[in-house]
Amino acid sequence: MTTPASNTGGQQPSPPTGQTSAQAGGSIRDRLQSPRSSDQASGSGNTRESDLRENGFQQSNSVADLHAGGRGESQYDSSKTPQVTAEQELAGRKHPLGPEDAKSAERKVSALFLLSFLGVVGFVLTFFLVDNDYASSTRYLYTPLLGTFLALALAGVGAGAVLWAKLLMVDEEAVQERHPFGSPKDERSSTAQALKKGLEETGLPRRSLLRNTLLLGAGSLALLPVPFLFGLGRFQHKERVLATTAWREGVRLIRQNGTPVRLGDLQVGAIESVFPDVEHGTKIADSPTLLIRMRPEELQVVEGREDWSVDGHIAYSSICTHLGCPVKLYEQQTHHLFCPCHQSTFAANEGCKVVFGPAARPLPQLAISVDEEGYFYAQGDFDEAVGPSYWERDT
Amino acid sequence: MSLLEKGTDAGAVWVDDRLGSSNFVRRSLNKVFPDHWSFMLGEVALYSFVILLLSGTYLSFFYTPSLSEVVYDGSYVPLKGVTMTQAYASTLDISFDVRGGLIMRQIHHWSALLFMASIVVHLMRVFFTGAFRKPREINWIIGVTLLVLGIAEGFAGYSLPDDLLSGTGLRIAYSIALSIPVIGTWAAFLVFGGEYPGVAILDRLYSAHILLLPGLILGLITFHMMMIWYQKHTQFAGPGRTEDNVVGSRFFPSYAAKAGGFFFLVFAVVAALGGLAQINPVWLYGPYDASQVSAGSQPDWYVGFLDGSTRLMPNWEIAGFGYTVPLNVMVPTVVLPGILFTLLALYPFIEARFTGDRDYHNLLDRPRDVPVRTAIGTMSIAFYVLLMIGGGNDVIASVFHLSINTISRVLQVSLFVVPPIVYFATKRVCLALQRSDDELVHHGIESGTIRRLPSGEFVEETVPLPAVYRISLTGVESDRPELEGATAHGAEGQSKGPGYGDEHVVENAPERVPGFFRGKRRSGPSDTSAPRPEGAMPELERSGKPAPPE
Amino acid sequence: MIRTAGPRNDRQAGSSVHKPDKTRRRKRASSYGVVLLALSVLGGIYAALLAPQSVAQEDQPANQSTQVQEGGDLYRTGCSTCHGLDLSGGAGGPSLIGSGASAVVFQVESGRMPLNAGVQQAPRKKAKYSLAEIDALAAYIQANGGGPELPEGDLADGDLQLGGALFRTNCASCHNFAGSGGALTYGKYAPELRPASARVIYTAMQHGPESMPRYSDAQLTDDEKRAITRYVTFLQDSGDVGGASLGRYGPISEGLVIWVVGITVLVGMTLWIGARA
Question: How high is the pLDDT of residue B397?
């Protein structure tokens, strides 16, 4: 059809077919262990000795000769070594394929394309016919079957195309010149000239008033989007919002299902996830709290917090002071609270001081009390901001 | 002519009449691409991105990015009657009530994991072979940008279903934003629209995920490919391969068939994973609730190194004068990745500065030939892998019944101890491999034939290295490479990467300045520090022939 | 070995030197065998006749009494060394007074008890006692100290949706969203829930073994506990619609798979495509 490889870039014609080059990768020693397919195109089957002789290897009487290496010794005597080009070394390979081999290759490729077609058929049938209902027994097969048929369909075309290229298309070594990077000097200087000329014509280098006001005016245009950004956030009372939760004095502790917690509900060694009894209390993200019961003698009360706990019942914010994950992992025997996200460990019997992990501050404690009916309630909000630290946080 | 040929002719004429494209098309069809296997790793990334676009478009027809609540009434029984966000409910619908929805979701997610993994593998290939050197620094920076954008895109994507696992990740992201000094609270409130959880984050993540980030990524990928097309791909040294040519196969039909076939094969792998390996089973996680969390919560693997750095950071915090700087959060999540990615992006310039190498490079290095660069690379990989292991320390502890505290301590120490060891070991291995190459070039291959000399001594005969391999190793087409000043590590005319020349075994080589990073030659015909003659381009002087020794 | 020590080389001499040694050894062996046999017979008789037997009680019409007695015998044989003959505990184990039948069912049915010494946390093992024996032990402990008991009926008969919600609130933070287990501090762990029976799941909540908190009926009512049990058994029985579950650990196993399977296969493909035919 078309003559190969003519283009305006000065590409050299590809070498005659039948010549290939070896791959630069792979372990060289491995490749050389396998018998060489040919030697100088003169056919294989030489014994090693004759190989060596043909390559100009000469008997030498001293070890020094052999190990001299690269210094004009017999191994590298270029007058004796025939010049073997890279292409010639592997010329023994048959390419392109003879007619039978080509036909067999064509059959292989076609089989893969057919496999692809079958894959599509299988996919379509599975998609519409296999029952995917929750109640059906075949629902565990649905997605795996779809995936298998889809993979088959795609792999058929893919492998077929690759095999087609490898077996039936000409395996050539085309060479193409690179064009030099960087333009020629005169090109560059004309461009530089054009730039300079244009810049001069604008008058900017001379007119400093123009330049300065341009910077001020046009430059400040870049600041225009910034006010719009402030519309994206709700910045009112930002610090106050971060520093307070929904807990207030008298607010009862309730469970996720809304029932209030009563003294005696928890046994020693029990925990309960509690929320403030306000509207949407279980949904307010900074208010989840953990109520823990331990033996009163196990509790080392923090100074100033003597009346914050009731009979070994103690409540802490469950929003981790590291990055805000809920801390609900309580080890009954060690009294440790363990955050699953980054493994911050808090000693719940010692004011939740940090004993391991990246959290820098203990979990804030909620002062609780019990009302006349026996239900727990909060004495007020936490005395510090809950959750992770931020710039304006003032302890 | 056959029908196919007639049709092709007619079509080509029709298009050319309108676009005048004949010349461009012909040049493109005949364009030569080198065909080493490692050059196809970037293609995996490209193809998985295409798969992401296709599967993602389909998913976008069914997903609702809304935080407003709804009572689930789909076919997944254990969540029937549960109140959840519309985002989560729509994800459940895709998984259970849209035919083929689950496999599409899974293909999408597996493809995302593959996209990031292939970017990393491709980055390693480019790094270790020195393909980032002049004139390809821009492409390198684009690549690093794509890596960062990919991480952001993936994070946005897996947060969309609003399940318990990804919601926990969003909470952590909010807190990370908070930790930035001065502007942290502003930034967090801005992005989320208020105090956590805000009302806006899912809609905004959705916009970012389907519009903003894919647009940026697609644009950058296009520019990335255009640069490769225009600058031509690099290649390894070998017979007939020089700095000024490209040796390989023509684009049409051979390269296109292989590349196109490979696309289908990548798609097949992703499809197989999508059908046979369950990923992100959101129905098991449950809807997000700020008071709930699962043990063993991790982000997707490509964010894992940040999770690890966060877990391993000591709990330092500075507080005073009414302000707090939480170093325990800021350093591992903002400062560390900032430094790492900046160093990564600027690496071509850093290396050029230290080696003094400002030449064009179209031939690739073998990693062993540049021990310092290779060692820096493996050292960085070791550091990165240690961080990733840190990110999974709780699952490791739970599965293997180890103490998580011990694992954390060991990793904290390893972060400082292991990378230097890896650096040292890699460098030694590279030098040993270099020596072995030298042996091959100068002494030939051990033939296995032992000869006994009359003196009684036994010697092994060697066979000269076949030309093909010798040329690949030395870069010159001569059977006496050392006469041309070439060693087993490339031609004289080639400037070398960092570490070249360290304890080099070959005699006869011009003197090298030994030491870390300084592979610069003191003398030699192509001393890069010598000023070039006016107007001459280096490549034209080295048209594949080595410069004559002076 | 008693042997005349001649020079080494002698051993290589004719084999006639060995024959007397061989015969002597054979004779010695057979005498050992006889003694061994005799001892085994004696031992067997001893085991059969003198092993502790259930002491036949005077007519006890109530089944429960027999069960408690049987439990008591099992207890004294297998548990009293650590927990004391009077259940008040000892050097090896805590007091069982007040633990109740529930604790016994959990610990013994999951194989954690009897405990091998010297472990950070009692691991699950194959249960040593049969279900009937476990019930007997449980009855004994209950009779002698009181405490939480298992209710009657199908313990997994609960509301699936409620169970899921409660599981995610109370259990997932330690045991993972699918019950695949999680790490606690210093080598302790919240175990995988897959092998647990409904009885073990229910009683775990009542009993609060080791690090796990305990949930009274005021905290989690019987219905709620059954709901959670139902959900956990659902997690055990349900397959994975998306293919292989990869352990239900989350993104870690997914990341491993993409590298070990995905990248490996694809790099293999590039090697195939890039290789010269």
Answer: 93
Residue A120 contacts B where some CB pair is shorter than 8 Å:
no
Distance CA B515, CA C197 (A): 66
Question: Both ends of chain A: CA-CA distance in Å?
Answer: 83
* Residue B36 with chain C: CB contacts under 8 Å: 274
DSSP one-letter code for B244: T
| Chain B / chain C CB contacts < 8 angstroms | 199
* Residue A84 contacts B, CB cutoff 8 Å: yes
The number of helices, as runs of H, and strands, as runs of E, in chain B is 20, 10
- Spell out a b/e string for C105-125, using b for 16 or more CB atoms within 10 Å of the CB, else e: bbbbbbbbbbbeeeeebbeee
Question: SS3 for A346?
Answer: strand
Distances from the Cα of B513 to the Cαs of B426, B520, B523, B547, in angstroms? 21, 6, 10, 21
pLDDT at site A97: 65
What's the CA gap between A32 and B397, in Å, rounded?
47
Q: Do B266 and C266 touch (CB under 8 A)?
A: yes
Question: What's C272's DSSP letter?
Answer: H
**Burial classification of residue B369, based on how many CB atoms lie within 10 Å of its CB (0-12 exposed, 13-18 middle, 19 or more buried):** buried
Secondary element (H or E) of residue A315: strand A313-317
Q: In terms of Cα–Cα distance, which of C68, C186, C123, A146 is closest to B102?
A: A146
Task: Give yes or no for a contact between C100 and C146, defined as CB atoms under 8 angstroms apart.
Answer: yes
Q: Which residue is listed with tokens 């005498």?
A: C31
Cβ distance B276 to C175 less than 8 Å, yes or no, reads no
Tokens representing B313 are 């950071």
Which positions ≥6 away from C269 have C-beta within 8 Å? B262, B265, B269
Q: Is the dihedral of CA A277, A281, A287, A288 positive or negative?
A: positive
Q: Does residue B398 surpass a pLDDT of 70? A: yes
Nearest to B110 among C244, C258, C273 (CB): C258
pTM score, two decimals? 0.82
Q: Which helix (H) or strand (E) holds B158?
A: helix B137-159
Low-confidence ranges of chain C (pLDDT < 70): 1-23, 46-64, 276-277
Mind giving me the DSSP string for B488-508? TTB-TTS---TTTTTT---TT
- pLDDT confidence bin for A205, thresholds 50/70/90: confident
A153/A112 Cα distance (integer angstroms):
9
Q: If you average pLDDT over residues A235-254, what whole number do you get? A: 91
DSSP string, C8-45: HHHHHS-GGGHHHHHHHHHHHHHHHHHHHHHHHHHHHH
Q: Residue ranges of the alpha helices (H) in A130-184? A: 139-163
A86 and B239 in contact (C-beta within 8 Å)? yes
Instruction: Confirm or reject contact between B234 and chain A (CB < 8 A).
Output: no
Contacts of C50 (CB under 8 A, 6+ apart): none
pLDDT digits (tens, 9 = 90+) for A40-68: 333 333 344 444 444 444 443 333 333 33
| CA nearest to A368, candidates A245, A251, A244, A246 | A251
* CB-based contact C243:B281 (threshold 8 Å): no
Cα–Cα distance for residue pair B116/B223, rounded to 1 Å: 19
What distance in Å separates the CA atoms of residue A38 and residue A40, rounded to the nearest whole number? 6
How far are the Cα atoms of A77, B367, B444 from residue B127, in angstroms, in the given order? 40, 9, 31
**3-class secondary-structure state, position C182:** strand
Dist CA C109 CA C102 (whole Å) = 11
Burial of residue B447, with CB atoms counted within 10 A of its CB: 0-12 exposed, 13-18 middle, 19 or more buried: middle
Query: Do B251 and B31 touch, CB atoms closer than 8 A?
Result: yes
Cross-chain residue pair B78–C275, CB shorter than 8 Å: no
